[in-house]
C-alpha cells in the first residue's frame, strides 16, 4: 500500500508528519485526513484556536502535495 | 481511572510498549515514540491524572515552557497520529501483542486492555459464504465407516489371496485325483455319467 503524509498547516505554524500512514488509495487518505481533523478538534482542553486557518496537506511518499483538506470552523 | 493497576500487570505493559516501539510507524517517528513512551510511563507511575497537553509538549515533544495548548494544536495533532499509528501496528504487526494500548479520543491517558490471543488461522481464514454452507444433516444415525490403514488393507488382501490359493490347490488336487485312471477303471460317478 502506498504511504501518505498528513502535514497540518496553519497560517504561522505547522505540524509536519514524520511517520505517514499506509492507505489503499486517495479515498482512504481523504478519510484519514478528516479523522485527523476530528481528533485534533476534539481534544480535552478548551482552545482559542482559529481552526479556519488550518488545513491538512496530504502528500505522497515523495512529499508531493496531492490535495488539501481544510479544517471546518467547528466540529459538526 | 487506571485500567492498568486493576487488570494488566505493569511488567506486561512495559513489554508491550517496547514491542510497539519496534514497529515501523514508531521507528519512523521519534516524536510518536516519545509521546507514547511518556504517557505510558506516566500512567504506570501513577501520574496519569497529570498527563495534559502541556506536560506532553514540554516533557516529551521538546517544546518550551511558553507552550500554550489553547493556541497550539501540536499535541492534539500528534495524539491523533498516535492513535492512527497504534491502529496500524495492531492491524499489521500484532504478533505477540496481547495487551491493547490505546489513547481514547478526548484525552491523552492511555488505556491497557488484555486481549485474548486468537489463533493465527482465525484471522486469515475467509468466512464461508452462507450460500455455500451445506444444510445440517438430518437427525438419523450415520452409516458406520471403518477406516483401514494401508498396512491393514495389505494384510486383508494377502489373507484373501492365501485363501483363494488354498482353494485353487484343493480344487486342482481333487480334479486331478478324479481324472487320473486307476487300476479299477474310471471312478464310479464317471462311469454312471457315461451310462
Describe the protein in words:
The complex is a heterodimer of chains A (76) and B (195). Chain A has one domain. Helices cover 21% and strands 29% of the residues of chain A. Chain A contains 1 helix and 5 strands; from the N terminus they run E-E-E-H-E-E. The longest helix of chain A has 16 residues, at 26-41. The termini of chain A are far apart. The interface between A and B is medium-sized, with 27 and 31 residues.
Quick summary of this structure?
The complex is a heterodimer of chains A (76) and B (195). Chain A is built from one helix and five strands, in the order E-E-E-H-E-E.
Q: What is the succession of H and E elements of chain B?
A: HHHHHHEEHHH
Q: Which stretches of chain B of 5+ consecutive residues score pLDDT under 50?
A: 1-5, 118-146, 183-195
Number of strands of chain A: 5
Proportion of residues in helical segments of chain A: 10-25%
Q: Could you describe the largest sheet of chain B, including whether it forms a barrel?
A: 2 strands, antiparallel
Helix content of chain B: 40-55%
The average pLDDT score of chain A comes to: 93
Envelope shape of chain A? globular
Low-confidence sequence ranges of chain A: none
Radius of gyration of CA atoms of chain B, rounded to a whole number: 41 Å
Q: What is the β-strand count of chain B?
A: 2
Keywords (chain B): Membrane, Transmembrane, Transmembrane helix
Biased composition (Pro residues) (chain B): 127-141
Transmembrane segments (chain B): 154-173
Region (Disordered) (chain B): 123-146
What secondary-structure arrangement, pairings included, does this model have?
The complex is a heterodimer of chains A (about 80) and B (about 200).
Chain A: E1 3-9, E2 14-15, E3 21-22, H1 26-41, E4 55-59, E5 65-70
Chain B: H1 3-7, H2 10-21, H3 24-28, H4 30-44, H5 53-59, H6 74-92, E1 99-102, E2 111-114, H7 120-124, H8 150-179, H9 188-194
Antiparallel strand pairs in B: 1-2
Helix pairs in contact in B: 2-4, 4-6
Amino acid at each position: 500500500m502506498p504511504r501518505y503524509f498528513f502535514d497540518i498547516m496553519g497560517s504561522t505554524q505547522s505540524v509536519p508528519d514524520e511517520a505517514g500512514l499506509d492507505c489503499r488509495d486517495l479515498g482512504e487518505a481523504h478519510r484519514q485526513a478528516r479523522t485527523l481533523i476530528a481528533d485534533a478538534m476534539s481534544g480535552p482542553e478548551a482552545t482559542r484556536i482559529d481552526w479556519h486557518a488550518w488545513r491538512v496537506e496530504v502528500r505522497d511518499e515523495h512529499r508531493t502535495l496531492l490535495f488539501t483538506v481544510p479544517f471546518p470552523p467547528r466540529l459538526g | 481511572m487506571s485500567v492498568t493497576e486493576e487488570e494488566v500487570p505493569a511488567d506486561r505493559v512495559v513489554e508491550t510498549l517496547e514491542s510497539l516501539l519496534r514497529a515501523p510507524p514508531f521507528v519512523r517517528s521519534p516524536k510518536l515514540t516519545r509521546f507514547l513512551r511518556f504517557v505510558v510511563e506516566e500512567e504506570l507511575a501513577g501520574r496519569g491524572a497529570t498527563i495534559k497537553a502541556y506536560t506532553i509538549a514540554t516533557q516529551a515533544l521538546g517544546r518550551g515552557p511558553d507552550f500554550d495548548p489553547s493556541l497550539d494544536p501540536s499535541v492534539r495533532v500528534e495524539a491523533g497520529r498516535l492513535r492512527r499509528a497504534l491502529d496500524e501496528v495492531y492491524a499489521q504487526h500484532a504478533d505477540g501483542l496481547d495487551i491493547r494500548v490505546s489513547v481514547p479520543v478526548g484525552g491523552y491517558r492511555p488505556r491497557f486492555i488484555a486481549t485474548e490471543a486468537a489463533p493465527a488461522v482465525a484471522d486469515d481464514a475467509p468466512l464461508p459464504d452462507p450460500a455455500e454452507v451445506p444444510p445440517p444433516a438430518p437427525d438419523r444415525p450415520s452409516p458406520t465407516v471403518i477406516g483401514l490403514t494401508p498396512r491393514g488393507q495389505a494384510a486383508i488382501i494377502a489373507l484373501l489371496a492365501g485363501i483363494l490359493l488354498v482353494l485353487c490347490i484343493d480344487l486342482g488336487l481333487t480334479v486331478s485325483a478324479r481324472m487320473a485312471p486307476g487300476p479299477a477303471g474310471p471312478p464310479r460317478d464317471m462311469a454312471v455319467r457315461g451310462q
